[in-house]
Fold this sequence. Notes:
alpha/beta
Amino acid sequence: MTRSLNLLSIQSHVVYGHVGNASAVFPLQRLGHEVWPVHTVQFSNHTGYGAWRGQVFDPSLIDECVTGLKERGALARCDGVLSGYLGSAETGEAVLRALREVRVANRSALYCCDPVMGDVGRGIFVRPGITDFMRDHAVPEADVLTPNQFELELLAGFATPTMVDVERALIAVNALRNGGRTHQSRTILVTSLVTDATPPDCIDVLAAHFDGDGGMRRFLLRTPRLDVNLNGAGDAIAALFFAHLLTTNSPAGALQRAVSSVFGVLRRTVQAGSRELLTVAAQEEFVQPSQMFEVRDA
């Protein structure tokens, strides 16, 4: 039986739809994990609509919530910290303060950073200062990273039209570490990956695992390309990949389960013609994906 995790998830939240914590929390709970959500923003809906209401929360909210968890003695039971969209660089600093508190209480806790900064076609869509914060502060602390291809290129500083370029970028991003974590293993998941080797009707997702000595193993999963551009899918993949990685210690297995699950949800969403992910209606996909895609060495 898969062990139940306690995960601290610090990211955005929406009232309507499924992005950020609204996309990440329920799938994890459906798998039997306890999730402690802290919201960096609360909006009426995701910003892809072009109009929304709500507010970016003061970073002190994160500090207050984590202090409360510390006072309850909960941080020692925290298996991992997951961060996503940040409203500001100051919010990111609060996330890292929370991470430090968790690591003091539980040295084996891992940090998954989804470095949300932009995407192909939209470019950078976060506030000034966040890209620098991600590269210089958040990424160096992460045990697990889940950038899309655009974000991988932003962190590496160059384009990745070929798999050779992707490998170079992975090595460059893996080198972004603080001094105390130089010899720690690290896993990087690259979503929405398209290279010259990707068929036009497909899309790739790649997981790269670096051991403590710098050796790298890469795993590739390819799915059909769905005619859809939905917000929140990356948030769900990051959360599921992190949880499956923690429970199985298998990057290949985590890649297969996470992507197969979210593909199933996306397919149901497309069939229904919905603009929002059918996270609840298609929830069985999180437990038992209707189609398991093959993972191969890359």
